[in-house]
User: Fold Inhibitor of apoptosis repeat-containing protein from Tulasnella calospora MUT 4182.
Amino acid sequence: MASHPPMYVVEARITSFNPSMPTQPTATKSRGKKAKAPPPPPDAWPHPSTFKANPSTLAQAGFFYPDRNDPNASGIVDEVECFMCGHTLGGWEEQDDPHYEHAKRVKQTKCTWALAVCSIQSERVGKDTWRFMSSDRLPTARALEKARRGTFGTYWPHDQAGSKHGITSKKVAEAGFVFTPTSTSPDMATCPYCQTAFADWEMDDVPLCVFSFFTALALIK
Assistant:
């Protein structure tokens, strides 16, 4: 089974917006005057932090910033691409919400990330509060379960042929999780509602029971 593509990792998507940013700050002599911030690299995200569409929110919504030096890149300087469906969006305005913009195009793109994640986040009205306009947004909805399964693709490490590991992507998706691997945790999965994440699954784990136990533990605390 092939490992997941790089942009499946949210940190990689965030990094794509500032590929040339130095990892260590460069000292600047100001001679008593406030030093000016250096201009962003030419291949960095062009919009200021006041935009709702920033590297973090865009990455969470499934987008990465394509290489601007690619000869096939479009001339739209703020065009981003979804790691899951390949759909591109550009022309961002200050109040545009990445989750909402991705979710409202789901009928066109058939994107599993847009449906399983963005459609949920776009209807959040508080930290742990949502206002769903339809029961189709509830975790038990069949369409959402199917979309969550779609986020795993063929990359869930415990689905490989001959594996005796009981934690299949089907079970994890049914329990309410989407696939969110990291560079160190290839089997991490996250609930798109409460953002609870689990990794290093053991053979006898029951995803729904594990989720319920830790959620209850958090409430007790």
About this structure: Residues 1-17+46-125 form a domain with the Inhibitor Of Apoptosis Protein (2mihbC-IAP-1); Chain A fold (CATH 1.10.1170.10).
